Amino acid sequence: xxxxxxxxxxxxxxxxxxxxxxxxxxxxxxxxxxxxxxxxxxxxxxxxxxxxxxxxxxxxxxxxxxxxxxxxxxxxxxxxxxxxxxxxxxxxxxxxxxxxxxxxxxxxxxxxxxxxxxxxxxxxxxxxxxxxxxxxxxxxxxxxxxxxxxxxxxxxxxxxxxxxxxxxxxxxxxxxxxxxxxxxxxxxxxxxxxxxxxxxxxxxxxxxxxxxxxxxxxxxxxxxxxxxxxxxxxxxxxxxxxxxxxxxxxxxxxxxxxxxxxxxxxxxxxxxxxxxxxxxxxxxxxxxxxxxxxxxxxxxxxxxxxxxxxxxxxxxxxxxxxxxxxxxxxxxxxxxxxxxxxxxxxxxxxxxxxxxxxxxxxxxxxxxxxxxxxxxxxxxxxxxxxxxxxxxxxxxxxxxxxxxxxxxxxxxxxxxxxxxxxxxxxxxxxxxxxxxxxxxxxxxxxxxxxxxxxxxxxxxxxxxxxxxxxxxxxxxxxxx
Length: 480
What we know:
With 480 residues, the chain is of the alpha+beta class. It folds into two domains: 2-368, DD-peptidase/beta-lactamase superfamily (Beta-lactamase, 3-Layer(aba) Sandwich); 379-467, Lipocalin. 26% of the residues lie in helices and 25% in strands. The chain has helices spanning 15-36, 80-93, 124-129, 142-145, 151-157, 175-189, 193-202, 216-220, 247-250, 256-265, 280-287, 349-368; strands at 2-3, 40-47, 50-61, 66-67, 74-77, 226-229, 235-237, 252-254, 291-292, 298-300, 305-309, 312-321, 324-331, 336-342, 386-389, 394-400, 403-407, 419-425, 428-432, 443-448, 454-459, 462-467. The strands form four sheets. Strands 1, 2, 3, 4, 9, 10, 11, 12, 13 and 14 form a ten-stranded antiparallel sheet that branches. It has an eight-stranded antiparallel β-barrel with strand order 15-16-17-18-19-20-21-22. Strands 5-8 form a two-stranded antiparallel ribbon. The protein is globular. The chain starts with a strand and ends in a 13-residue tail after the last strand. 39% of the residues are buried.
């Protein structure tokens, strides 16, 4: 059941350890596929700008014994939504729309029964964050009969639908909302939605096997999709579906190799142009939490889901269509990503992707990361070492593991307040530390008196003063 394909191994610092863990991962996947009865699975792991490992397991077509590979095409369904969101942010950055504009500004035909008359107008931001309060679907049972509505049918029936909740009061996933976002892409860009995605996202990223509406040639390469396993053990071959008017929410086709290129975009911060289709700041904005769930374990960005997995923040999106389950996940901080595509509704790609992060991805990150020798501390730093104080807190400055650091020694865990002092000029530093600290990014400047000893230290817009002992009285000037 195991087939190699699309293997793109790079040189690792510990190739023997990597090789043994690859074998372990392959055995684990093969076992779970066998017991879950999955026909085929393609998987890839991204580290920064490379696919460091990819494989196909099982078959894209079991009857023809066609092996699944990293090049095998799958319907990626709702992963389409992140491409729609990317298009919206591109147009925002080009000054052609604003996220907080009401969608009626761009879709004059947008009308729906409002169950909550006091509710705010639905904006583009609400569409991307699933906080619009709109119903989940357009007014058709297309997930049951596979008869998807055209764009015109959605427009005609929208006035007969009604909102489910007031705007921005609850997170409610909506294919209708992202379909409307796709309509805005088309209205603002003056390009058909599929053409815009192709010209401004897929081509610059060299995603040549990806399409909104697959050609007949593309369709020949798509894995055969199977439905869920029924009580008698059978699995129905699912028909190919064209999402038509729901396309911006659910219609794209892609493979592991192309989706890896999209993940690698998330780890770049180059000047906009060519393959850098969005600035680093806009990419980070899309991944930031714009709506957090009540349990504080997950939330939603602009088109992306965001969750906590152990100590990692994982960003991504899943897809589910008749016969297919897919997932892209990545950790921006570690620059590691995972792509999982399964040609069965029985499979759970999140299960496989999460295990990559829990078990395998950290190994790649460690082995791919270059070894950076620790710089020796500057001998001149010894003049800054000592105890400091102001009315509010005590501070200790010392050389710790080769770095000049500042911390509060009175805390139960002093390392939790530790700030690295990075040199920026003569007697001038900038603080670096854990995200969330109010001190990171602030300047530290050592001032000297006529005796050439430190008289005080400016920390941000405040001051601390040197003391010889923690028992010394408060130095410096007190407020009157």
